[in-house]
């Protein structure tokens, strides 16, 4: 794999809960200094709008 190297940058990854949590450890293995945040969303069955339940 070929990728650009980011030096001097502070990275943060924000997985969506459940769907993205499985990738968190892999990202931390690649970028150990990265910060991790979390977002939880669900879709309201009546309005079909996304609703935040955890940020």
TrEMBL record:
> What Pfam families does the database record attribute to this sequence?
UPRTase
Q: Which GO terms describe its molecular function?
A: uracil phosphoribosyltransferase activity
Gene encoding the protein? upp_2
- InterPro entries, alphabetized: PRTase-like, PRTase_dom
> Protein name, please?
Uracil phosphoribosyltransferase
| EC supergroup of this enzyme | transferase
EC assignment: the record states 2.4.2.9
Q: Which residues does the UniProt record annotate as the domain Phosphoribosyltransferase?
A: 5-55
UniProt keyword terms in alphabetical order: Glycosyltransferase, Transferase
């Amino acid at each position: 794999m070929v990728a650009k190297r980011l030096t001097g940058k502070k990275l943060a990854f924000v997985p969506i809960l459940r769907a993205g949590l499985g990738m968190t450890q892999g990202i931390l293995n690649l970028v150990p200094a990265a910060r991790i945040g979390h977002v939880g969303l669900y879709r309201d069955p009546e309005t079909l709008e996304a609703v935040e339940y955890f940020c």
